Amino acid sequence: QVQLVESGGGLVQAGGSLRLSCAASGVILSINAMGWYRQAPGKQRELVATITRGGSTNYADSVKGRFTISRDNAKNTVYLQMNSLKPEDTAVYYCNADRITTLTRVEYDCWGQGTQVTVSS
Fold this sequence. Notes:
Number of helices: 0
Shape: elongated
Distance between the termini: 40 Å
Oligomer: single chain
Number of strands: 12
Strand content: over 45%
Largest sheet: 8 strands, mixed
Order of helices and strands: EEEEEEEEEEEE
């Protein structure tokens, strides 16, 4: 079974940077679009950024110019470079893949377990 495993979260001061990684495990043939979402306490999960297999990106207005999403298809990994972090960026960050094709099956709407990002003022 395919798993998405995030890493790189932590505590950082406002203005600092963090880099999140999300690696898909398993015997994977291809992954379609991947993305990062976040959920702050008491709020709904929201889109942060997405990237297609070909590298086209999309960002939430709140992170444009500060966050950069990228991926390494050979490593089945997506990254989120977060710069100029603000306290309002504090949330659990989740990795998503909309379609993962393995040798035996296709899995849709896959989610990681989440990684906490806390930005102190």
